[in-house]
């Protein structure tokens, strides 16, 4: 099961990078109206940021994302009956594939996702490897709480 998932993860992530590279080579393409102004996107839509929702799938179907778009992570603060979530950035593709949090950087803590949610602006042209950092990678791995974004350059005009 774990092996099968990793294999698919590689091919899907690889596809995303390929598509991104292709569009950079061919210039500004895709959905110009979406690209002209910064968008605010709620990660997972009505599902929010939760255990067991496939965020790789979500990112693929809701992208592409553009520079200066804002991602909003919505998750309730933990209480006696619910587990915490968080938002981490993993340093590279390999740690992303393995949900290896050793060199990860926390950007949103366990209570940051309440209310209007935790907002993160994609303001650099780089791949962002997002993951939930809870339970030492268990949410990332078994809970599918991870996805990659490489924001497109914004189209003007
Ligand atoms: C999550 O979605 C991706 C992309 O659609 C798919 O390749 C993968 O198999 C899914 N993972 C699980 C565990 O269903
Ligand atoms: C993103 O926002 C920053 C700060 O507002 C701005 O300087 C930059 O030009 C914007 N980049 C794009 C690609 O829109
Ligand atoms: C814990 O939080 C969940 C989600 O916000 C909420 O539905 C539930 O009622 C809360 N439980 C307690 C004991 O506060
Ligand atoms: Cu989590």
UniProtKB/TrEMBL annotation:
Entry keyword annotation includes Signal: yes
Keyword terms: Signal
Domain Phytocyanin, residue spans: 39-153
Signal peptide: 1-30
A GO term for molecular function: electron transfer activity
UniProt keyword Signal, yes or no: yes
Protein name: Phytocyanin domain-containing protein
Naturally occurring in which organism (per UniProt): Nelumbo nucifera (Sacred lotus)
